[in-house]
Amino acid sequence: MPYVEKGMQVGLFGGSFNPPHAGHALVAEIALRRLALDQLWWMVTPGNPLKSTRELAPLKDRLERSEKIATDPRIKVTAFEASYNVRYTADTLELVKARNPGVDFVWVMGADNLAQFHRWQRWRQIASTFPIAVIDRPGATLSFLSSVVAKTFDYARVDEADAPRLARIKAPAWTFIHGPRSPLSSTAIRNGKSSG
């Protein structure tokens, strides 16, 4: 796990990054700026229970590619979940919380993931562990309002103007952050439909 100090605001940006691309870097940069983060952990997962492992590049390759793309020194590329043999996000967040008392974390995710978030293992627990920042992605700007998660936690939505203090708000709390969007997609890149 990357080194942090008490009082820091840290974003947790997890994914398979298969492959990582400039769209991921844009989400990370928006999160750093708009959430007033001291660090952002770019967490390259060993696998994804909702995706086929046949098409997953080796963890080492995804980690190296992520390090080349994530150039901001506040971004810490890590694959610590593999060391702890963690499979589900809910377990990762519990581990992070237990090992880093006094640090304010926020889960960062692209809006394109919100539609299926309710399919994640123990998704309600995830939403109740750390606040969530949903970063705008192409095609997801309006559809996020109809997601199961947005409807379930509509009472916990924080105004986008308050995003810099989101990490310090007790979960459940979430916000949607508008901003520049990249059309890049890992799936499209793997299928040869996109450059980058």
Automatic annotation (TrEMBL):
EC category: transferase
HAMAP family assigned to the protein according to its UniProt record, in alphabetical order: NaMN_adenylyltr
CDD domains per record: NMNAT (cd02165)
Pfam annotation, one family: CTP_transf_like
Family label: Belongs to the NadD family.
InterPro entries: Cyt_trans-like (IPR004821), NadD/NMNAT (IPR005248), Rossmann-like_a/b/a_fold (IPR014729)
Keyword Transferase attached: yes
Single GO molecular function: ATP binding
Source organism of this protein record: Oryzicola mucosus
Keywords: ATP-binding, NAD, Nucleotide-binding, Nucleotidyltransferase, Pyridine nucleotide biosynthesis, Transferase
E.C. designation(s): 2.7.7.18
This protein's name: Probable nicotinate-nucleotide adenylyltransferase
Function: Catalyzes the reversible adenylation of nicotinate mononucleotide (NaMN) to nicotinic acid adenine dinucleotide (NaAD).
GO biological process terms on file: NAD+ biosynthetic process
Domain Cytidyltransferase-like: 12-191
Catalytic activity line of the entry: nicotinate beta-D-ribonucleotide + ATP + H(+) = deamido-NAD(+) + diphosphate
This protein's record includes keyword DNA damage: no
Pathway, per record: Cofactor biosynthesis; NAD(+) biosynthesis; deamido-NAD(+) from nicotinate D-ribonucleotide: step 1/1
